[in-house]
Amino acid sequence: MAGQLKLGGSKGEIKAVPILDMQKDGQGFKPIFDVFEEIFDNVRDFPVAIICIAGPFRKGKSFLLNLLAHYLIENQSSTWFKKGDTQPAKVFEWKGGVERNTVGIHITNKPFILETSDKKKVAVFLMDTQGMFDTKTTTKDCSTIFALSTLLSSVQIYNLTDQIHENDLQQFEVLPYYH
């Protein structure tokens, strides 16, 4: 897609908001429907595209989405990451370490309004998922996150570091078959 980026929706900074959150008892998830209504209300007249990154926990999904957000905020400029920038945009929360940070599914509170090459406007949202297969997440929870994010997204990126190993494929294989 080419063209200028304009942040849609109400004024204020773009940030990630949860649309699927862990139940208070830690057993399963609950959708947050009022957030859906609020963020999609302003784009009823546009086609919507959702770019999602899923994958194992602690592999940089939120950081990668922040890089993409930074690129979009900078209007897809060839100089989108300027000299002196030490961090990408802080749209999605991330931190170093071994403990998970994202729980559930988070999406940008506003779309990036982009133009296609034939001048049609598209509302683009970025979506982040809880990392899969951490010590606090059951296979059922992983399946729920993966299934919902796949159904909601226009593009689902499965993020891995390094090479694809056999255990990555074995974990990935479990997701569609779990009931």
Describe this structure as you would to a colleague:
Helices cover 25% and strands 25% of the residues. It has 179 residues and is of the alpha+beta class. The protein has a single domain (2-177), classed as Rossmann fold (3-Layer(aba) Sandwich), CATH 3.40.50. Strands 1, 2, 3, 4, 5, 6, 7 and 8 form an eight-stranded mixed β-sheet that branches. The longest helix has 14 residues, at 139-152. The protein starts with a strand and ends in a 5-residue tail after the last helix. The model is unreliable at 1-10 (pLDDT under 50).
Oligomeric description of these chains? single chain
What is the CATH first-level class name?
A: Alpha Beta
Question: What is the approximate shape?
Answer: globular
* N-to-C series of helices and strands: EEEHEHEEEHEH
